[in-house]
Amino acid sequence: MAGGGELNLTNKEIKEELTYQKELVEELKSADGNEETIVQSYLANNDNAIAENQGRIGDSDVPEFIDIYTINDDTQLVVTDTEVTLEVTEIADERGATTEEQELLKKEDTDTNLVSSIKKFGETVIFGKKVHAASKTVSARHTRTGYAKISGNKLYTAGIGAKFTYNGEKVTAQTTENYVKVNGVSGIVWSVHDKKNDVQKPSSKRRVVYQQATVKSGIMYKGNGLVVEEKYIRVTVERNHLSKVSKSSVIR
């Protein structure tokens, strides 16, 4: 945790902040699928001097500090001076691909040349005919939700879900859910702009599914809307032809 910037935190304030964060992390590590409830309850019921001193939400677009905690393989917590974000990934069990999913996979472009009498992972080429490993499908979803540190109110959440079908040689992907949602808090109005969802195809062996948007918070003053804060949010899930799933997110 950094104590620089405009906050100029004292050693006592830094110690109190780290204790605050550690207690929340410990509660999350003992959670059983109710992480969102734990975060909101903890923030609402525990005062945070730094967040209170920062004033209303959106006083600064740039956080004074960012602390990141890995709760487990599927959950990550990010704490700044005014916000807490919870990042969660869910991956379903692998299953056999349906006929429709196999047909979609067959249509995918591939840069693999047929060469007789060679073996590769997941395939054998015999007499000029390529025999792939059995096609499999898996679903994954990734969400990132931001909360006001001073109150526990949910500010925004972005989510992406996809199913991937692969056979050891190539992979295809379809979006199953995508959204960016916002909530108004104590006179602050949030709105969503420039939403975009797509499937990126860096190669036949990799697919990246993403949802992105810009969220803005603002207030009404003499009948005019004033933008207080603006954030770009992007969440992704991706998979390669060998069944490895990964995720990432950006808030800036």
UniProtKB/TrEMBL annotation:
Q: What is this protein called?
A: Uncharacterized protein
